[in-house]
Amino acid sequence: MTGHAQDHHHQDGHRDPPNFPIQEGRAIWGFLLAFLAYWLSHRFVYVENDPGALARASARGERVEWSSFDKFYKQAPTLFLQPSNHEELIGILREAAASNQTVKVVGSGHSWTPIGLTDGVMLNLDKFNKVLSIDASAKTVTVQAGIRIRDLSAALAAHDPPLALRNTGVLDRQSLAGALATGTHGTGIRYKIMSADVVALELVTAGGNVLRGSRRDPDPAMRDMFEAAVLHLGALGVLTEVSMEVVEAFSVIKRNRLLPLNTVLSTLPALAAGVDHLLVWFIPYTGRAQLMESLRIPPTKVPPTHDWGDSRKHCQNFGSTSGDEASAAQ
Ligand SMILES: Cc1cc2nc3c(=O)[nH]c(=O)nc-3n(C[C@H](O)[C@H](O)[C@H](O)COP(=O)(O)OP(=O)(O)OC[C@H]3O[C@@H](n4cnc5c(N)ncnc54)[C@H](O)[C@@H]3O)c2cc1C
Asked: How does the average pLDDT of the chain come out, rounded?
C-alpha cells in the first residue's frame, strides 16, 4: 500500500501529525532490520553483570568495571565488595568513611542512568537475599533488600497460600532495593509504584548505624526516615531489609490490539480504566498504536511469569490477538 502524507491544518494554526500510510515492502525490511538489531544487541551488548565474579576478581586485586545493563554507563570502582552480613557491611562502611571514600550500592545495573556509579567503593547485596518471614494473614513479607524481584516472586508463589507482589515493572531481574530506589512501577491506573507497598525498612547509614523505621512508626524521626528511604535514590545509606504488603496470587490474561493513534488518545482514560494493565506503543509514521491490555484473574495452573519474554508464553489470551482493528475502527 502506498500513498501521500496528509497534512491537516486547522484554522487556529494547529497542525495534525502527518499520517503516513505504511509501505508494506519497506515495513517488512524495517521489521527484519529491527529484529536483527534487537537480536544482536541482546546477544552481544545486554550481557548482565556478574557481581559475584566481580567481587572475586576485586579481592584478587584485579581492576573490575561495573556497567549499566546496556553498557552505556561504566566505571571502575577502587573496590567491588559483596558483604554477606551486617558485621561485614558495617566494617566496610566505617573503613570507607575513615578513608573518605564514596560508597555506592548496585543491584543489577538496570538503571538507565549513572546513578549507581562510583570510583570509590562499590557494594552489591546479592548475598542479602533471604526471605525472612511471610505473614499470610497480614499479607506481608519481610526480606533482605538485596533479593532479586524474580526470587521474591518465586518464593511468594511457592507459599501456601500462594502470594504475589502487588505490581512490578516489565522486568523482574532487578534487586528489590534497586527497584525501590528509583520508584519502579508497573502499569495500571489502579496500582501504585512498588515503594507504596513498603511498610517497614532497615537502613545502614554511611557511619555504620542501623536505623529501622516503619509507615506508622511511633518515633516521628524514624517515620520521617522511612518516608525518605522508601524511594531513596541510593543516596541515604544501604537498604538492608524491607517489609512489604503482598496480595493473593493471580494470573494474567492479555490481548494485543492495533488502533488508530487518535482513537487511543481520545479514549485513553476509558481504555486504561477498562483493564488492569495497559501498555501503549506508539508506532511512528503509521498513525497507529499497539495496545497490550491485561486483566487479572484468579490463579490458574499457568506457571508464574519471570519476565516479559516468558510472560508472553505463559499468559493466556482473551479476545483477538491477531486482528488489525485499525481499519475497522477508522
Ligand atoms: C529493560 C528495562 C526495563 C525496565 N522496566 C521498568 C518498568 O517497567 N518500570 C519501571 O519503573 N522501571 C523499569 N526499569 C528501571 C529499573 O526497574 C530501575 O532502574 C531499577 O532501579 C533497577 O534496579 P537495579 O537492582 O538494577 O538497581 P541499580 O540500577 O543497580 O541501582 C539503582 C539505584 O539503586 C541504588 N541501590 C541499589 N541497591 C541498593 C541498596 N541495597 N541500598 C541502597 N541503594 C541501593 C543504587 O545505588 C542506584 O542509585 C527498567 C529498566 C530496564 C533496563
From this structure: 85
Residue boundaries of the structural domains of the chain? 51-124, 131-248, 251-329
Q: Average the pLDDT over 156-168 and give the result.
A: 94
CATH 3.30.43.10 assigned to domain 51-124? The reply is yes
May I ask the CATH architecture of the domain 131-248?
2-Layer Sandwich (3.30)
Ligand 1 centre to CA of 304 (Å) is: 22
Binned at pLDDT 50, 70 and 90, residue 322 comes out as very low
For 314, phi then psi, to 5°, come to: -85, -25
Residues with CB under 6 A from ligand 1: 69, 104-111, 115-116, 125, 145-146, 169-171, 174-175, 177-179, 181-182, 184-185, 233-234, 238-239
Contact 238, 203 (CB under 8 A): yes
The per-residue pLDDT for range 52-84, each reduced to its tens digit, is 999 999 999 999 999 998 888 999 999 999 999
| 65 Cα–ligand 1 center, Å | 18
